[in-house]
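Researcher: I've been going back and forth with a colleague about how Biopolymer transport protein ExbB might be arranged in three dimensions. Neither of us has a model we trust, so I'd like an independent prediction. The organism is Parazoarcus communis SWub3 = DSM 12120, in case that matters for your notes. Sequence below.
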Amino acid sequence: MESQAFGLAHLWGQSDFVIRAVAAILLLMSVTSWYLILVRGLRQLRARRSEDALDAFWAAPSLTAGIQRLSAQAPDSPFEALAKQGSAAADHLRQHHNRDTLGGTLDSEEFITRALRKSISISTSQLESGLTMLASIGSTAPFVGLFGTVWGIYHALVNISASGLATLDKVAGPVGEALIMTAFGLFVAIPAVLAYNAFTRANRVELAELDAFAHDLHAWFATGARIAPVDTPRSAAATPARATTAEAV
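Model: Here is an independent structure prediction for Biopolymer transport protein ExbB. You can compare it with whatever you and your colleague have in mind.
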């Protein structure tokens, strides 16, 4: 019957302000972590539609129609922002290009390149939003839980010493309860670390695709045609051959 006197309720009832503060911090970390995981996970699900949206973009009869297809199939995506930024830069260059000004001496390709790089930088910042928080939670939560354990053990030993009953059954219960804080810390940290690694890898893949799209856009703005994809022997054997030319946007 004595073993039933120990547990979470008993730990919370006999704990002091420090233990309760640690528990509140871990709870806040957990809620924040799962919120970020949910938001980023939903965003990754939407990002999976980008490949089909890019195919629709390059199959469009004009740049305006292509951007409209991107907006319809992949709204608020980095690819849509990149296409709009490139189009806006090209329009600005056509309307305001003047050799008599300082900006007029800038090469048109370099101007568009800088516009595309700016869009990629903004998209990169947005993709990495929240990852720092996940990394921080994953790295600090175990130590917060460990601090709660150390403080709980100290608090339990002080109470046992004051009561004068230092038998094994009197020590094991409070110490075991204190170890629960370490378990809580690991419970908070492990999902955050796994999610951080998964989202970081997904961001690398998406940024590589975004960089390739920017390269194709730059080629189109410079030459009026998209660079034909080149299949390697491995990719040609693994996937059906695609057309080597794309429709001009």
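Researcher: What would you highlight for our discussion?
Model: I'd start with this: The CA atoms of residues 109 and 222 lie 6 Å apart. After that, consider the following. Residues 2-226 form one domain.
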